[in-house]
Amino acid sequence: MNVMARVETMTTLPVSARRSEEEGRYRAPALDKGLDILELLSNQSGGMTRGEIVKAMSRSPSEIYRMLERLVARDYVARSPEGDRYSLTLKLFALAHRHPPVRRLVTRILPLMDAFAREARQSLHMVVEDRGRALVVAQSFSPTNWEFGVRVGAILDLLGTSSGQTLLAFQGDQAREQLSIRWADTPEQETLGQLDPDLRAIKAQGYRIGDSRQIRGVQDISVPILNPDGQALAVLTCPYLERLDHTDQPSIEQTLALLREVTQDVSIK
Predict the structure, then answer these.
(1) Which residue has the higher pLDDT, 176 or 15?
(2) Is the pLDDT of residue 152 over 80?
(3) Distance of CA 10 to the CA centre of its chain
(4) Which three-class secondary structure state does DSSP give residue 209?
(5) Which of 72-77's residues contact partners 24+ apart within 8 Å by CB, and which partners?
(6) In the sheet that 219-226 helps form, which strands lie side by side, from edge to edge?
(7) What's the Rg (C-alpha) of the chain?
(8) Which of 48, 91, 167, 259 has the smallest count of CB within 10 Å of its CB?
(9) Which ranges constitute the DSSP H helices of the chain?
(10) What does the angle CA 69 – CA 70 – CA 76 come to, to the nearest 5 degrees?
(11) Per-residue pLDDT, 121
(12) What is the pLDDT of residue 239?
């Protein structure tokens, strides 16, 4: 097949098929193996033995041994003092937080988030969009005895959370196009279309308040941090808890006003 015919064939394939073909042509087995180990260990807070890793990955012991030794040498994986368990180090976390735009935003907003948490007596987290997901990059906890929060590093559903829907509502055309490509021929693409009226309403209102779809009794308050073009750099979400034993607690409307002050102070004009 000549070059032009190959190009024409590829451009007529569905997006998902083209992506699968490209992934097949550019495979790097050793790299895939290392990434598989990192992803596997990320779900195991207590670590895993080499035998457990071998069984979970259906690989030969020698393959896993060599890869684990390299990951330990590069400080991505730590071996227990007894030498029989492996777990992730914080190196990946540190690398992720070196990303300059996110780091600058987190550094700038954390004092404001902490002040909000003290005044509103509510917890608060900041979320950014990351490859079709919502990623929690900062958190401030309520100073009271009762709190509800989402840990830093948590990955949330863009379509099924208040943070994610608010991010989607304030997306630009380019970001929406990238998501359409990523979600081509998937249930997410259909769900995104069904959410369109809700996303328009969130954008028109400038924020979202609604029942949490994860925790009963929690009201999520989500407000975007905008760039000069009116697109969301990030979203601040307060999982609002109504206290029955404190009548002087700021109301949900007062909490929204406090949260909007934070986003206005940090939004890039």
Answers:
(1) 176
(2) yes
(3) 32
(4) strand
(5) 76/38, 77/37, 77/38, 77/41
(6) 155-156, 133-140, 124-130, 232-240, 219-226, 208-211
(7) 22
(8) 91
(9) 3-12, 15-25, 29-42, 50-57, 61-73, 91-96, 100-120, 162-169, 173-182, 187-205, 252-266
(10) 100
(11) 92
(12) 94
Fold assignment, 3-89: Arc Repressor Mutant, subunit A (1.10.10)
Same topology for domains 3-89 and 97-266, yes or no? no
- Model pLDDT, residue 76: 92
Asked if 259 and 238 count as a contact pair (C-beta separation under 8 A), the reply is yes
Task: Dump pLDDT digits (tens) for 33-57.
Answer: 899 999 999 888 788 999 999 999 9
The type of residue at 14 is P
Q: Are 50 and 69 in contact (CB under 8 A)?
A: no
pLDDT at residue 9 in the model: 41
Give the pLDDT of residue 6. Answer: 40
- Asked if 224 and 163 count as a contact pair (C-beta separation under 8 A), the reply is no
Which residue, among 62, 66, 72, has the nearest Cα to 41 in the 3D structure?
72
Q: Domain residue spans in the chain?
A: 3-89, 97-266
**pLDDT tens-digit series, residues 22-37:** 556 667 888 888 999 9
CA distances from residue 118 to 121, 167, 240, 249 in whole angstroms, order as listed: 5, 25, 14, 11
> What single-letter DSSP state applies at residue 88?
E
**What's the token pair of residue 120?**
């509103």
